[in-house]
Design a protein that fits this description.
The complex is a heterodimer.
Chain A lengths: L1 H21 L3 H26 L7 H19 L3 H23 L4 H21 L1 H4 L5 E2 L4 E2 L2 E2 L3 H24 L1 H11 L1 H6 L4 H27 L1 E2 L6 H14 L4 H18 L6 H15 L4 H8 L5
Antiparallel strand pairs in A: 1-4, 2-3
Helix pairs in contact in A: 1-7, 2-7, 2-10, 2-11, 2-12, 3-4, 3-5, 3-10, 4-10, 7-8, 8-10, 11-12
Chain B lengths: L1 H32 L6 H17 L4 H24 L7 H23 L15 E3 L2 E3 L1 H23 L1 H11 L1 H6 L4 H27 L6 H15 L4 H22 L7 H12 L14
Antiparallel strand pairs in B: 1-2
Helix pairs in contact in B: 1-5, 1-6, 1-8, 1-9, 1-10, 2-3, 2-4, 2-8, 2-9, 3-8, 5-6, 5-8, 9-10, 9-11
Classes of the chains: A mainly alpha, B mainly alpha.
Chain lengths: 310, 291
């Protein structure tokens, strides 16, 4: 089983290594970078939703905090981008930890409501504090650099993001096989049963929530620097839903499902651009159909079909 | 001072009544199926938009309004038959994504066929404001409040005094037990979607003369209806009405006295605080989990 799991990781790394040499032009390179960034976010979110069984409908809010920390702190206060990124992550971590304790007394739909509310409050704040954030129009983000070396072209970004993704996949695979990961899966199965065998349910839920929020914040910063621009849409409800959809369509509690979900849903808007005006209808239909016919998501469904472990 | 307070109160209860109707819609569907219908807001939008289209096409007002309620109700039923019934018992996240998919489809189709413009509807009985203690009240607000009150009474009668209503209540308490005593629970599911879509559409129609409507107003209205339903305690009809009015009033007060820019954030701040201290809302009973 161990070996089998790592096989997937080697495959991911192999694809990442070959990809830039087979992509026909910079449009696809850009798409690949955005897929990889989303994949890292979705990996973190899947640990929360898929493995621990806790919904978050406000994750884009955390992305927003990271992205705006990277935009506002260097622009208005002259902070180094890396310091700004760390500050965003710490702020997100503190916020997530503060709200997590009361939030995780809630279950199911109440939890969905609370996380949704948190995300919406963050996105409204970003939209309204125009003197700092540029309001609805957004603001430019300075370039990311270290020791005089500046990350500027897409090739460099690709390797950075590919490295981040490989490390995240490796870390996720290890995490879910660790005592921590087993505790998460146990409380997903039955909270009472896991409490009985000595799992501190609330502590684990808080820990994984904070972890995935910090993950999101860091990747929000990365996205902001890569795109060079942030706008409040980045933090809004719809983006949160998109991320959750990536988790569910790829496959809950499946590491490789996260990757597949991120890749498919990042590519989808490009593919739908040909439907002029009908994008929303087609996108909505795809969400509904895939959930009706594959409620477990793509990777677990296919894995079950071919009799392999996902 | 008083006049200003009254003014905020009036606009608060007017919008709050619409939230209450939306929250009742959430409650109906939640009770019948444990689904949180994220497409609820789209029924509000659809009601308003269709009312505009049918009145502009020259239909008499009552006919236009009736169509604007019946069509969303049919849409609700179609969603239930095609998307909810086939996945009975799926995980919460799956159901949430399905209803969000449905809301995107409704919104997208509205944008394609009815355009992306903003539309208004003439008030049902004139625009002459009524003056009360220095504050003004639009006649349309009276329509909103009156019709909402009627609907609440009618629903109370339906659920407490008719066999069909009692069958729906029984299903929400215990589906299996309801089936055992011969209640057709898939009919209950069908009815709850039709009724909640009709309630949402009604709210949208009543509100359109005051706030205007367009293809994308459903998201916020729906989410606030959700806040109202959770505030009152999911599944509690009385709670939904109280929650709706409370959300409307606090939003109007917050916008008036604190910050109008943060008007849309107020319901969500409110619900976070309520949930922190009362994890099942104001009127949610204590639940015991079966292990």
């Amino acid at each position: 089983m161990q070996k089998n799991v790592y096989k997937g990781l080697y495959l991911v790394i192999a694809i990442l290594l070959v990809l830039p040499f087979v992509l026909p032009n910079s449009f696809y390179l850009d798409l690949a970078i955005r897929m990889a960034i989303n994949a890292v976010i979705v990996l973190g979110l899947n640990l929360l939703i898929g493995f621990a069984g806790q919904i978050s409908l406000g994750h884009a809010g955390f992305l927003g905090i990271g992205a705006y920390a990277s935009a506002v702190l260097p622009t208005h206060f002259g902070w180094h981008p890396l310091l700004a990124m760390a500050a965003g992550a710490v702020a997100t971590g503190i916020l997530a930890a503060l709200v997590a304790r009361p939030i995780f007394k809630l279950k199911g739909n109440y939890l969905a409501m609370a996380t949704l509310g948190l995300g919406i409050i963050i996105s409204i704040a970003l939209r309204n504090e125009a003197q700092w954030t540029g309001g609805p129009d957004g603001m430019p983000v300075p370039a990311m650099g270290l020791f005089g070396f500046e990350l500027s072209n897409d090739k460099q970004w690709y390797w950075v993001v590919a490295l981040l993704l490989s490390v995240s996949v490796w870390a996720s695979l290890n995490l879910i096989d660790s005592p921590f990961g087993r505790a998460l899966r146990a409380l997903h199965g039955s909270e009472v049963a896991s409490q009985v065998v000595g799992v501190d349910v609330v502590r684990y839920k808080v820990a994984i929530f904070v972890m995935s929020a910090v993950f999101a914040s860091l990747m929000g910063s990365v996205t902001a620097h890569y795109v060079g621009f942030v706008s409040p849409n980045f933090a809004d409800f719809f983006h949160s839903i998109e991320l959750v959809t990536m988790v569910v369509i790829g496959g809950m509690a499946s590491v490789y499902g996260s990757l597949v979900g991120a890749v498919l849903l990042t590519a989808l808007p490009q593919a739908l651009a040909t439907f002029e005006g009908w994008e929303t209808v087609v996108f909505g239909s795809i969400l509904m159909l895939s959930m009706i016919f594959m409620p477990k998501g793509l990777v677990p469904t296919l894995a079950a079909k071919f009799g392999k472990e996902g | 001072m008083l006049a200003q307070f009254l003014q905020f109160l009036f606009s608060g209860i007017t919008v709050g009544a619409t939230y209450a109707l939306a929250a009742l819609g959430f409650t109906l569907i939640y009770n019948a199926s444990n689904v949180i219908n994220f497409a609820q807001g789209e029924f509000i939008m659809l009601g308003g938009m269709l009312a505009v289209v049918f009145t502009q096409s020259g239909l008499p007002l009552p006919a236009a309004l009736a169509l604007a309620i019946v069509i969303p109700a049919m849409v609700g039923v179609v969603i239930e038959k095609l998307a909810i019934e086939p996945v009975k018992g799926a995980e919460t996240v799956t159901l949430i994504i399905i209803t969000i998919g449905a809301s995107l489809v409704i919104r997208g189709l509205t944008a394609v066929f009815l355009g992306k413009g903003t539309h208004g509807l003439p008030a049902f009985s004139g625009e002459t404001p009524i003056e009360i203690l220095g504050a003004t009240l639009l006649p349309q607000s009276l329509w909103v409040l009156g019709v909402t009150a009627l609907v609440v009474v009618a629903l109370w009668y339906f659920f407490n005094r008719t066999l069909h209503g009692k069958a729906m209540l029984a299903t929400s308490y215990n589906r299996l037990a309801a089936e055992l005593v011969g209640i057709n629970t898939s009919w209950v599911l069908f009815m709850s979607f039709a009724m909640s879509a009709a309630l949402g559409a009604l709210g949208g129609i009543l509100l359109t003369p005051i706030t205007m409507t367009s293809y994308d107003v459903g998201i916020m209205l729906g989410l606030k209806g959700f806040v109202a339903a959770v505030l009152g305690g999911l599944g509690n009809g009385l709670g939904a009405v109280v929650g709706g009015l409370l959300v409307g009033i606090l939003e109007a007060m917050g916008a008036g006295y604190i910050s109008s820019a943060y008007k849309d954030a107020i319901p969500f701040v409110l619900i976070l605080f309520i949930l922190f201290f009362m994890p099942r809302g104001l009127f949610g009973g204590k639940s015991t989990d079966r292990v």
